[in-house]
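new request in #modeling-help
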Amino acid sequence: MELAPSPSSSSAAPPSAPGAPAPKRRAYGDWLYALALVTGACFAFLRYGQAMDGYDAAILVLHVPILAALGRAWRPFRPFLAIVAVLALAGIWLYQGDPARAEQTFFLKYLISSQAAIAWMSALFFIATGAYWLGMAARSDFAERTGSALTWAASVMGATGLFVRWYESYLLGPDIGHIPISNLYEVFVLFSLITALLYLFYEGRYGTRKLGAFVLLTVSIAVAFLLWYAFTREAYQIQPLVPALQSYWMKVHVPANFVGYGGFALAAMAGAAHLLVSRGILAGRLPAPKVLEDVMYKAIAIGFAFFTIATILGALWAAEAWGSYWSWDPKETWALIVWLNYAIWLHMRLTRGLRGAMLAWWALGGLLVTTFAFLGVNMFLSGLHSYGSL
Amino acid sequence: MMGDGESVPFLLSLFLSGLVPDGFLPQRPRMQQGASARVSAIQALIELLSSMRFAISLLTVLAIASIIGTVVQQNEPANAYLNQFGQFWEPVFARMGLYSVYGAGWFLAILAFLVLSTMLCIIRQATPMLREMRGFHEHAREVSLRLFAHHASLVPTLPPQARRGAVTDYLAGEGFRFRIDEREDGALVAARQGGAGRIGYFLAHTAIVLICAGGLLDGDLPLALQMYLGDKAPTSGNRPVADIPASARLGPDNWSYRGNVYIPEGGSADFAVLNAGDGILLQSLPFRVALQRFRIDYYASGMPRRYASDLVITDNDSGERFERTLEVNKPFTYRGVTLFQSGFDDGGSRLRFTVRDLAPGAHPPYPFAGEVGARIPLETLGYGYTLEITGFRPINVENMAATAPGGGFESFFGGGANAQSGKKPRNLGPSYTFKLRDAAGQAREFSNYMLPVEIDGRWYLYSGMRASQMEPFSYLRIPLDGDAGVDAWFAIRHIFFDPARLDALAARFAARNLDGDDSTLRERLKEAAGHTLALFADGGFAAISEFIEKSIPEAERERSGAAFLQIIQGLTWDAWMIAREEAGQAALEPGEAHAPFVRDALIALADSSRYGAPFYLQLNAYEQRQATVLQATRSPGKALVYSGALLLALGVFGMLYIRERRLFVLLKNDETLLAMSSNRKTIDLDETFARHRDALAAALGATAPQN
Ligand code: HEM
């Protein structure tokens, strides 16, 4: 039955719970992983420490417990992290401080220079989508497994691309270097990556791959936009940061936002599936309504929680950059609207008579609101946030 | 589950539903009794306001209201709205407060309702929730336990006493707190976990109240109140500070404001300017800020990297004095006032010009000086204009696209770092803008570059002109002559458009082209040249083509057009040669080498007749003086809002991620009954229940559980 937790999902319960079957090697695994993280952090510090200031060091240290917790709650995240780390470091090593090598070195040019990696990510996401749809159409478990394998691969390439791009930005000049989440192109990569990872998490959590076709569809649409945007605007060029963006807040504000967007996108797809299934369409081929409702709630919960954080961080940042924590700038206002929309959703869920199809519709509509807040505002409304302008 | 047949009418009923008091939460039967018993009207009203449905409607209304303010541009000048909405609607929308929605009464009313509703909701929830948090429901009856969605009955092998120990050990190990209720037929172990989630509810919802309250303190309301209650009234901005009446000045004791401080380099200010409606108010600061220097650092690409103001701050009371550098993203607070780097401007740069009169035979170029911001009447110089120097920029970086954007697949590959090839940043040097306002008050705006610009191998001096702000600048491109710079073109122009010299010029042209002894033919050519020159002088090319249209038969036009062009170009050449002789420069050999200059010169001559200024204002030297624009704020609500934000974050995570679980174990002689409940219905509950059931079954040595 679908509800039965899959092997990986039982690991989602904290090992501290004696109730959960926690074999010895499991605990060893945790320790090894934690050790690897610590060594990684130490290596990073020894290698790049002289270039870090207090914040950087603090953030580096913070990563250890956070990634440890993540890897504990979600075991497949560990190999993912390991592979990304290896590839990213390989990329950095291959560059040897010379941007021109992106053209000369085979592995950089065609595999792990930021652009190549992101191109791979895009291709893999497209194929993964195809695989999931095939799996749904042909009820083929193999196709679905392939789908999630490809999604993992795509995520690896996407993450690698971002990390290498981060390094590349410093090759342009120490004063230019910055985290690659500062323009629309970069955040679209981030969005695809986070949405895919969130999906993969729930895929393991619920032990069903049947939602992949829908979620990967949105990811593919995002990627399609990404490529269009890249080719028509040469958006993939790394641009220096305008003074207003030179802030530590950006490093947390933007990613938190995109966990939000990712969660909402996921919830919308669960909603869409729910609406179909509750009409008996694709009934056997999609997860059961009960599971879909749960996915919707979980996705919106995590999205809402992170979006709350993101909005708060945004306010703190605005207070520094613009002299007021809230200026009703269109982007801010639409963030509020998105936030309210999901607050409404959460309350509806607690109110009799407003559950079921209503919630599904609302989650689906929520994606429109979110998309407008994410893209529409930059396209149609002018304001202080005109950085990622189209 | 509800089919969406119901869901569509629901959308409508959502808003109405807010008006119907109803059961509170499905999970709380207790409340429904409270709701259904309508003690009094007030009671009913409170029920309504604190009801979840009302909250939902309220949040929906708030969301929709917020949209309006993003669709209608906020706080624009009145006439902008007039253009946008027209005579009829502009005032209507103004009454509705659509131009500053977020300060409008009705919007604040919505927020007030949100606060009220949330507060009532908290109050009403307080007692039951605290009871829930503390209570164990240890008196739950067996029948009701059997009705739980999650229950199972185990048939244990252990004796009752041993069982109790096993159960309590297990529960303790699982982090449950529990209470035991002895009964004649056994004992009920009532256990609870994750009650803290309820605290989350209080934190998050109190946060809403705090944030709204804090926001109110920092919003426009305090100022509005001062203007409404106090004797304060805004005045028009364009007048010297000294003339601003006391009624428009706010003392340093004012506790909530946001204003701009404009300081030119070398100058200082101890007040901020607050915009109120169309007018302004002066907010005096408890200290004086002096600007030593304003600095802009650039990236290699010419993009600005850093804005910084070197300030000297002097306390008005203590006289304490210290230096401080302010940057974007690095604000600074002193005596409760926070200063931000919010912008910059020209602080009155001194510019030295050469005035090149365009009228033939007028005075030769002469020097002239002024500073940005100055309005200089030019009567004394014999021009019926006022010169308004409006701006100066020392650096103008343009991205000259080397390859058209859309580098395609190849340039997409490789690192983002070296995909830079596309654009070539190029500094065009200083530029300056000014207006010439005639007696009638009509102004033309000019935008000139100090240095010549190279366009495929040839150099030009650019001057943009436009008759109104709406239009883009149209540029006059003055070509440079290799050894005579811009002088050549101005000299050519003087000769070309001087009626007194028309005859001589035409004669020279004719002589050069027909040096045979056929004087009559030469005379005719001279006439033709003179005629062409006259036409061109009063109408440029347009006049010539017009003449052709009128006086030359269809068939001939092509040819004569070419002829006219040859003549006018020839005349340009001759004017150039005359100019060079007069400037004591060697004459040139006619030939292709000089054709481009002649062509450019001619085009510039044609355009210059539409230039609309009696002279060309050429910049020779400048002393830049910048000004910084700071924002000075005092936001008493900040503390409230920030603490609210913290509570909100904690509360939301608490509510969403601390799961309340209740596990009941009824120990009877022949049976052990398990039942489990939670305040949130999620699939985890199924899993967790199954886990506890199996673990307990094992602990009790029970046979396989049966429901
Ligand atoms: C911007 C305003 C609000 C926000 C952001 C907000 C947020 C939340 C969140 C995140 C939850 C948890 C939902 C869940 O666990 O699934 C919640 C629950 C709840 N909210 Fe709100 N809320 C707001 C306004 C209100 C108002 C105005 C009311 C009452 C009139 C209200 C009443 C409740 C109640 C009763 C619960 C259930 C608490 C529980 O069962 O533990 N909320 N709210």
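bot summary: Residues 289-321 of chain A form the longest helix (33 residues).
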